[in-house]
């Protein structure tokens, strides 16, 4: 079974000295070995990471990412998937992206911040509302970054 995972976290450690850029190739190598794909977007204050792959593999990876004290997780959502959205990206890194991409990511970050500000109960109740919108945005981003991808 495959699943996809999207989370928002606050950057607690990385500044602009290139430390993050040095971490990216290590992450890419590890994810390629695990057959995990996805992307990492940052505006320096926040990380927005999308991961997809085998459910058990992703659960183990998520456990590690959660424990990493270089960032603080604010919100996470997952869905089951039948096919990979970004099979060719072991971990695509976006920071200075195109205007459209930046706008899409900003919108997505705002949605997730909004969800993170809500109580657990209302998060559970609204899963099929708000989180569904979040996953729609993920598909929009896929279309922007890969114009050849087909609409579901
Ligand atoms: C924002 C952020 C994203 C990360 N993404 C990944 C990732 O996609 N894959 C990965 O293996 N490690 C990722 N890491 C690093 C992990 O948190 C952890 O340091 C790494 O898995 C090494 O764990 P280990 O040395 O205990 O095996 C990320 C770290 C940060 C801060």
Explained architecture:
The chain is globular. It starts with a strand and ends in a 7-residue tail after the last helix. It has five helices and five strands. It has one domain (2-145): Alpha-Beta Plaits, CATH 3.30.70. A hairpin with a 3-residue loop joins strand 2 and strand 3. The protein is 47% helix and 26% strand. With 152 residues, the chain is α+β, with helices and mostly antiparallel strands. The mean pLDDT is 87. It has a five-stranded mixed sheet with strand order 4-1-3-2-5, sandwiched between helices. The longest helix has 19 residues, at 127-145. The chain has helices at 19-34, 55-67, 99-116, 120-125, 127-145; strands at 2-11, 37-42, 46-54, 71-81, 92-94. It binds flavin mononucleotide. Flavin mononucleotide binds next to helix 1, strand 3 and helix 2.
Entry keywords:
single chain, 152 residues, alpha+beta, Alpha-Beta Plaits, five-stranded mixed β-sheet, 5 helices, 47% helix, binds flavin mononucleotide
């Amino acid at each position: 079974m495959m699943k996809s995972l999207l989370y928002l976290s606050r950057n607690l450690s990385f500044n602009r000295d290139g430390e993050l850029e040095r971490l990216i190739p290590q992450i890419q190598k590890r994810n390629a070995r695990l057959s995990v794909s996805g992307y990492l977007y940052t505006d320096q204050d926040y990380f927005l990471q999308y991961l997809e792959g085998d459910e058990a593999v992703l659960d183990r990876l998520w456990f590690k990412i959660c424990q990493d004290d270089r960032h603080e997780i604010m919100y996470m959502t997952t869905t089951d998937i039948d096919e990979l959205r970004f099979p060719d990206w072991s971990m695509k890194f976006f920071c200075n992206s195109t205007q459209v991409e930046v706008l899409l990511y900003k919108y997505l970050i705002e949605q997730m911040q909004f969800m993170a500000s809500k109580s657990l109960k209302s998060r559970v109740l609204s899963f099929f509302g708000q989180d569904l919108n979040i996953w729609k945005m993920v598909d929009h981003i896929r279309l922007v970054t890969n114009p050849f991808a087909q609409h579901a």
